[in-house]
Design brief:
The chain is mainly α and about 375 residues long. It contains 14 helices and 4 strands.
Length: about 375
Amino acid sequence: MEAKVSDVAITPMTSAPPGSRPLERSPAKRLRALSFVAINVLLLLALFIAMLVSVSIGAIHIPIRAMLATLARGTPLTETQHTILFSIRLPRILASAVVGAALSVSGLMFQGLFRNPMADPYIIGASGGAGIGAAIGIVFLSQYAIFGFSATAMLAFLGAVFSMAVVYLLARNHGRTSGVTLLLAGFAVGQMLTSSTYLLEVFDPNSTAGTRIIAAWLHGAIGVPAWMQLAIIAILLSASLIAAYPLMRRLNTLALGDEYAQQLGIRVETTRVGIILVGSLLTAIAVSLGGLISFAGLIVPHIARLFLGPDHIRLLPVTAIAGAIFLVLTDTLARTVFAPSEVPVGLLMVFIGGPFFLYLLRKNKRDYIV
């Protein structure tokens, strides 16, 4: 019953005389639907081109024509090119696409939940939990792996989920959660857990190597995952996006205010919990593959909203694809701009996202003047 009521909130009801044919969609709506499909098709094409270009760039150049011929006719590459393509570059590029999509959709959900364009996926403490989990894996369990996942990735995933669960429980009061309380609890828990990683660095028996790995991971560095790991992550990402779709319609209604949403039959607290769960899962997926990459979940949803408006249903696929493109291109720059050295993609993202965040802050400063 709830879904039907929320549908009515989004789609105006029309009446027709008994026995008459249903009203057809207006030409303007048809054109809008076609343009939306065209946008997604163009973005998918852009993602494919970005991945091809990224795969071809590196210390050893792999011609795009040779890759397409290999995919179409099975024309063999050289042994070195084949190894680089399927064992190093392609897994990493697919991982960067998954991380970009997960962070962007998570940012979209949290921005809608908090009604703030400056919200990002780490806003409720995911970064601190992921950091301490990864540090435990690096220092004590670096030699273990399950289904292609290193202990670092597994514990970062679990740490992000655990920290956000703790934040939610702390912010919950008499069956309700406050957005302000969530933000404050997330900040406090995240800072405490992030600072705790220093203790692990102190007690690391091989402190030099461990400290370097922890520092690189905290700055965001997309590695080369195993194909089994990519397959499991892709399934989790697909499930999260499917679960996010019905929440997008409810976010549209929540944007009008909690009281109005309740009058329309929306279970506000249940919706809020669902958004936090799905957003947390997406964030955990991202940190398990790429560490802590700031600003990706801030920039992409905001730009998508500027072009498409506030409808979260339309923003969902566009944000996911655009986020994948954005991080594929950024990671390509990170590994090539200072070649043969490599810059952590999270560090490069800071120099891109920092000025953008300051722009948003300046643009919205009137909203924060008391």
